[in-house]
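For the sake of transparency, this paper describes our internal protein records without simplification. The remainder of this section carries one protein's record, kept here as part of the documentation:
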Amino acid sequence: MSIKTILLHLNNDPQLESRIETALNLAALHGAHIKALYTIAQVTVPTSFMGYVPPEFIEQSKVAEEKQAAEAKAKLEKLSGAVGQEIEIVVEEGYAPDLINEHAVAVDLVIVGQGDPDADNNMQSQYIADELVVSSPRPVLVIPYAGEYKKFGKHVLVAWNNSREASRALHEALPFLTVATKVTLLSVNADEDESYATDHVIAHLKRHGVEAAFKAGVWPDIKVGDALLDALVDYSADMLVMGAYGHSRLREMILGGATENTLAHMTAPVLFAH
């Protein structure tokens, strides 16, 4: 398994340049092509307009979005040109998660940003990540809004509970695991001994050239998501891999507790697969 096409979501938040650098480094490492998608949200009419939408409001909104798209495009072209990276850029209008998922069917990895709670566009950024981790046809790498992540994945922590979601995430993460110097499968607050079943997973990874270790930890009175984030620090890991739990029903996001908590408080890049 390898990464040959990366779909990078572009928007106008302050962390865009950092995400571009992340994508460029991954593309260089895996010899991948980058497809960048800027999504323009449809104009939202303020309730104060009471049904009447001034034409100038629509025009001003359109001009502002086009300007932001051009700025994001210019940033990517400048940074990619400096390292000779092949890219293509697409600008489309509509509901961002739907547009991203349409393009994701023909890529190996989707990269998006975590919403910054203090940013003006947080609601837009947050719902994109929240929905994609459980709706994307391909694995989603979410980059935290705080910090720089040009290079990461030296020690990869895998949230493991012998579930379908965990297995899917583990296998989607193989391109990262095969180049990591250390891989740890971590079971959090397990109800029973999982060592026998996990032995087969460790042996399976070894056939892929991945030397992984298994650890089981107990964090009393702490949510699984918090335990995973604590473990990143405790084990000096710089990337988390986990299955995403939840579903999207009639646009009402229902995320599992660990998934929701990790998305809100991540301190390292997280690869999600559902």
